[in-house]
Amino acid sequence: MSRPSALTTDRRRVPYLLLGVVFALIFTVPLLWSILRAFQPHEVILGTPSIGEMFDLTGENFAFFLSSQGTMLRPVLNSILVSLSTAALTALVATLAGYGFSKFAFRGSRLAFGLILLTMMVPFQAVLTPLYLLMNSAGLTDSLLGLILFSTNFALPFGIFLMKNTFDTVPQALEDSAIIDGAGTVRMLVNVLRPMILPGIASSALYAFLTSWTEFLGALTFLTTEKYFTLPIALLNIQVGTYGEVNFGQLVAGSVIAMIPCVILYVALQRFYVKGLAAGAVKG
User: Fold this and answer.
1) Which residues lie across from 245 on neighbouring strands?
2) Is the Cβ–Cβ distance between 213 and 79 less than 8 Å?
3) Which end of the chain is less crowded, N or C, counting CB atoms within 10 A of the terminal residue's CB?
4) What is the pLDDT of residues 235-283, one digit of tens each?
5) End-to-end CA distance of the chain
6) CA–CA separation, 106 vs 141, rounded Å?
7) How far apart (Å, rounded) are the C-alpha atoms in residues 199 and 163?
8) Separation CA 222–CA 138 (nearest Å)
């Protein structure tokens, strides 16, 4: 049987390349369009479309957020603090819990793990009122710490599920060898298992960061003081405007600012994220 020539192989790749280009355009064109709009004045955005004015670019929308009149710098810092803290706390707790569910057999472990997965099917809007009453009695409302715990609570089930499946892929012989060499649990996790579980940790942290970064209803419910407002609430205030007036240039610029950390973090952790989800899919 004759082998296909290089020309035939290249021709077979053409449809896949074209399909990839189409999907890349679908995802990148709206992003590039938003960035272009963010550098346009408010009058150009609302005016009649014109090729000449389309590239009348200015940085006044972004300068507004850095000025004394802007109110975006503090919400951005608050969102970064909440999201990074949520990602770190979720990754830590999910790693320890996933290791326990995967490697330690105890009575009721399957039931406990099933209940954790069951919470993923319950929309948080259904438990928002009792959760607010509980956090209010604990003095955690109107604070960034309360919002961090709130976001971590709803990111943990997926993180535990992912980390358990990640630990299931680790050969037991590797752990037995580490134990024979005298390694404890913490040392084994940090020095021996870390390269294999790093994709799962990165995936759970990235998931927690993205969910907390875009969290709106929880932040709107638990935060009442303006100095604690996060980015989604600040964007809502811009959208509402004063006396119904909306500055679309500032609104689009704020949306672009909100996209930047998500894009950077996803690009930096993409290879770990794909590996972590693949590991979970194989064992899940």
Assistant:
1) 242
2) yes
3) N
4) 877 766 555 567 777 788 888 888 888 888 877 777 666 665 555 444 4
5) 41
6) 36
7) 9
8) 13
**pLDDT digits over 12-66, tens only?**
778 888 888 888 888 888 888 888 888 888 777 777 767 777 777 877 888 777 6
Q: How many helices (H) and strands (E) does the chain have?
A: 14, 0
Question: Token pair 């005298």 is at which residue?
Answer: 182
Give the C-alpha separation, 250 to 246, whole Å.
9
Q: Which amino acid is at 162?
A: L
Distance separating alpha carbons of residues 234 and 216, to the nearest angstrom: 10
Amino acid present at 159: G
Name the pTM for this structure: 0.79
Q: What are phi and psi of 91, to 5 degrees?
A: -60, -40
**Torsion-angle region of 139 (φ positive above 0: left; ψ -120 to 50: alpha; else: beta):** left
CA triple 276-281-284, angle to 5 deg: 115
Tokens of 148: 């961090």
Instruction: Find the length of the chain.
Output: 284
Amino acid, single-letter form, for residue 33: W
Does residue 154 contact residue 211 with C-beta atoms inside 8 Å?
A: yes
For residue 265, give every residue at least 6 positions away whose Cβ sits within 8 Å of its Cβ, in sequence order, or none. 206, 209, 210
Beta bridge mates, 242:
245
3-state secondary structure of 139: coil
Contact 66, 132 (CB under 8 A): no
Angle formed by the axes of helices 248-283 and 6-38, to 10°? 140
How many angstroms from the chain centroid is the CA of residue 59?
Answer: 28
**Alpha-carbon span 231 to 78, nearest angstrom:** 8
Task: Concatenate the DSSP letters of all residues of 203-216 into one string.
Answer: HHHHHHHHHHHT--
Lookup: tokens for 234: 């600040």
